[in-house]
């Protein structure tokens, strides 16, 4: 190519690139269009995790309960989707009314009810130049998936109506306050500089401890553990965990609320931790059981994704590998302990989400990259703050959850009766069969 032609070609490329920088901000509104586009994608990716979770859970239960179990995930999309718009966002991110422990309650400041006061607002702040409605919808997907996670702990044995009421109350009384603690500007853990980048405490620890308490309170499935209860479709489970992995990039990298360096860092360590968790789990299985299983691979992926969630914004790739390996080891031991103790956490919500969530929230203190540690902190002092957040979450979520469980079970009923349980959720509660098969066991 002649020199003149080469210069002309480079000039054309430069001119083509000008709009991507000059128009990164909408001049009339101040909106960062690049960050907003990424947040729209992230919001969609997090929502994709819900049908991914439905497939993951649905494949693990017995044939007669596959639709009923998947319905728990989709019901969370409906119930929490409406509640979040009505008052959930206001309670989580509205003005503080309780020394950093609670956001506003419905009606306290009518402006945020039904998102009315942010409906016409262009940007959140000079630093975060995305529309508040985008942020509200992004956070709303977290509010959806958290109670859906809990459903795995008592799968195959709860009434659909009782479950819907339970998650509605749990969202209002547990999730929204925890969200305010950690992510609202005036939340008490936020002001202590507790690190929870994308939901280690808010999502996974709260879901894990609630699932454990629910499993123990409601009792085991009838026939457990004497009767063999095989998964109905591990192919669907593997596809589900694959969708979860994809969606988790929006879950973690989207929590940067930007489209820049922090986004790239969070996305990178999410990929690395998931891969490390998967590799560690099948290695442990190979040493312990002399075989690597698809369920073990799926469990390792999930453990790695959970453990990096609170840490995605602050750890380097090397730390992500350590966290992923540690998560698989801890979760593997937790599931072995569950089997010895005999409680029926059907799909290991506490064993994976609870344990890996706690592991990530605590261990991140020792792998924080330079410049990310809060001022005047050491790894040990930051560990103390992280421990406070974990313990507070366990106590608050645990106590309030047992109250809600008892209330719902004693009023409209939560534990399904024996005949309906033996027939299966699909037939007894929904009048359907997942595969149209005669053998429903």
How does this structure look, described?
- With 441 residues, the chain is mostly helical.
- It has a single domain, classed as Ammonium transporter fold.
- 66% of the residues lie in helices and 0% in strands.
- The longest helix has 33 residues, at 379-411.
* Poorly predicted sequence stretches spanning 5 or more consecutive residues: 13-23
The counted number of beta strands is 0
For the record, the CATH class is: Mainly Alpha
- How would you classify the helix and strand content by structural class? mainly alpha
The fraction of residues in strands falls at under 5%
The biggest sheet, with number of strands, parallel, antiparallel or mixed sense and barrel status, is: none
Alpha-carbon distance between the termini?
71 Å
Task: State the domain count.
Answer: 1
Q: Can you tell me the CATH topology?
A: Ammonium transporter fold
CATH architecture annotation name:
Orthogonal Bundle
Count of alpha and pi helical runs: 15
Name some characteristics of this structure.
441 residues, mainly alpha, Ammonium transporter fold, 66% helix, globular
In short:
It is built from 15 helices and no strands. It is mainly alpha-helical.
List the helices and strands and how they pair.
Blueprint (H helix, E strand, L loop, with lengths): L2 H20 L10 H28 L5 H28 L38 H19 L9 H24 L4 H4 L8 H19 L15 H20 L7 H29 L4 H15 L8 H25 L7 H15 L15 H33 L6 H6 L1 H6 L11
Helix pairs in contact: 2-3, 2-4, 2-8, 3-4, 3-5, 4-5, 4-7, 5-7, 5-13, 7-12, 7-13, 8-9, 8-10, 9-10, 9-11, 10-11, 10-12, 11-12, 12-13
């Amino acid at each position: 190519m002649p020199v003149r032609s080469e210069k002309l070609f480079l000039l054309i490329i430069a001119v083509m690139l000008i709009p991507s920088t000059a128009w990164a901000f909408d001049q009339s509104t101040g909106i960062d269009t690049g960050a907003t586009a990424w947040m729209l994608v992230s919001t969609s990716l997090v929502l994709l995790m819900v049908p991914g979770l439905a497939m993951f859970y649905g494949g693990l239960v017995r044939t007669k309960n596959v639709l009923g179990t998947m319905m728990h995930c989709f019901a969370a999309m409906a119930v929490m989707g409406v509640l979040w718009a009505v008052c959930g966002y206001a309670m989580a991110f509205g003005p503080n009314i309780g020394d950093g422990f609670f956001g506003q309650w419905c009606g306290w400041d009518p402006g945020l009810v039904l998102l009315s006061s942010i409906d016409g607002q262009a940007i959140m702040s000079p630093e975060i130049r995305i529309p508040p409605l985008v942020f509200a919808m992004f956070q709303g997907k977290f509010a959806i998936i958290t109670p859906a996670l809990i459903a795995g702990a008592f799968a195959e044995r709860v009434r659909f109506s009782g479950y819907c009421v339970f998650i509605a109350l749990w969202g209002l009384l547990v999730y929204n306050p925890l969200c305010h603690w950690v992510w609202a500007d005036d939340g008490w853990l936020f002001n202590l500089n507790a690190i929870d980048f994308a939901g280690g405490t808010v999502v996974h620890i709260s879901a894990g401890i609630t699932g454990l308490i629910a499993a123990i309170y409601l009792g085991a499935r009838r026939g457990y553990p004497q009767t063999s209860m095989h998964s109905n479709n591990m192919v669907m489970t593997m596809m589900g965990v694959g969708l979860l992995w994809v969606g988790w990039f929006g879950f973690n990298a989207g929590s940067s609320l930007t489209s820049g360096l922090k986004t790239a860092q969070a996305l990178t360590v999410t990929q690395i931790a998931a891969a490390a968790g998967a590799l560690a789990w099948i290695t442990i299985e190979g040493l312990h059981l002399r075989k690597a299983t698809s369920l073990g691979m799926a469990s390792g992926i999930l453990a790695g994704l959970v453990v990096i969630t609170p840490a995605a914004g602050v750890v380097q790739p090397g730390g992500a590998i350590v966290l992923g390996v540690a998560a698989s080891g801890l979760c593997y031991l937790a599931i072995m302990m569950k089997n010895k103790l005999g409680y029926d956490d059907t799909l290991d919500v506490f064993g994976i989400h609870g344990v890996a969530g706690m592991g990530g929230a605590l261990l991140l203190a020792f792998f924080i990259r330079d410049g990310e540690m809060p001022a005047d902190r050491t790894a040990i002092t930051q560990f103390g703050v992280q421990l406070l957040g974990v313990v507070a979450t366990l106590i608050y979520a645990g106590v309030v959850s047992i109250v809600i469980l008892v209330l719902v079970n004693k009023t409209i009923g939560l534990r399904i009766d024996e005949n309906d349980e033996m027939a299966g959720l699909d037939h007894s509660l929904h009048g359907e069969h997942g595969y149209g098969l005669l053998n429903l066991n």
